[in-house]
Amino acid sequence: MTERQAEIGTAFVAGRPLEDRQPPEIDTSLPHSARVYDYWLGGKDHFPADRALGEVFEQAIPTMRQMAKENRVFLGRAVRHLVREAGIRQFLDIGTGIPTGGNTHEVAQAEAPESRVVYIDNDPIVLAHARALLVGDERGRTAYIHADLRDPAAILSHPALTGTLDLTQPVALMLVAVLMLVADEDEPHARVAELLDALPSGSHIVVTHPTADFDPETVAGVVAAADQGKLTLVPRSREQVAAFLGDWELLEPGVVPVMAWRPDGEPPADPEAAWYWAGVARKR
């Protein structure tokens, strides 16, 4: 952490102290999505319960690790597009996950050092590693808030957000592999719509979401395994994923398999090999 950055309990931010609260306890007895994902990506911040569930998924879907990596690679492509082609310099990344290579601020600030990023997650272990998300270019700014996607008002009003992002200027809302963790009864489409309404013209939304469209039977099995581990996992159809983008202008090539969204180099031989839908849209 540089001298510019201060720890602030439930949030970390460059520049100013905020409220001092005790971070929540880390429960290692139950799997958590961020830690399972870290396991698939080859990270080190996971526990036996996370590895056990991750292995159950891999038994059902042997290419699970590659799917997770393809989703991560997409994030980099999308951020580079937004910086280079759309002129975006502000990012709100919800469902951050445990810091790993190619974080949003690293990709954005490599293209435009002045880029500003606010990360949101509700896993205490992500909070414990939040300092790593703040090591960026001094010409930009990064912040981390321990908060929940199901409470958009708390996110939008948090001092770490309002002190880092200018919500009168375009913002990219990053919802990469997070919406499947919000159950239908928690009204995820309404929660996302609340976030979209708060963003100005020229803002973008980036979504990836796992789906059962390509293999319903296998995905039903991993959903049941997740439920046994007390982990919410809701795969959604292409139409349901597209609905998260609201009435914003959908960028080409539309809502497509994640590997097919503006791939670097040659198009993938089998774009449906990673079972995620992906889409990017712009607010008119």
How far the N terminus sits from the C terminus, by CA atoms, comes to 38 Å
The CATH class of the domain at 67-214 and 236-282 is Alpha Beta
- Please describe the biggest sheet, giving its number of strands, its sense, and whether it closes into a barrel: 10 strands, mixed
Order of helices and strands: EEHHHEHEHEHHEHEHHEEE
**What's the helix count?**
10
Work out the radius of gyration: 18 Å
Which range does the strand content fall in? 15-25%
Low-confidence stretches: 1-9, 15-23
Give the class from helix and strand content and strand pairing: alpha/beta
| The named CATH superfamily of the domain at 67-214 and 236-282 | Vaccinia Virus protein VP39
Total count of strands:
10
At CATH level 2, the architecture of the domain at 67-214 and 236-282 is 3-Layer(aba) Sandwich
Shape: globular
Provide mean pLDDT, rounded. 89
Report the CATH topology name of the domain at 67-214 and 236-282.
Rossmann fold
Helix content: 25-40%
Oligomer: single chain
How would you sum up this structure, described in words?
The chain is of the alpha/beta class. The chain has a domain at 67-214 and 236-282: Rossmann fold (3-Layer(aba) Sandwich), CATH 3.40.50. The protein is 33% helix and 17% strand. It has 10 helices and 10 strands. Strands 1, 2, 3, 4, 5, 6, 7, 8, 9 and 10 form a 10-stranded mixed beta sheet that branches. A hairpin with a 2-residue loop joins strand 1 and strand 2 (11-14). The N and C termini lie far apart (38 Å). Residues 1-9 and 15-23 have low confidence and may be disordered.
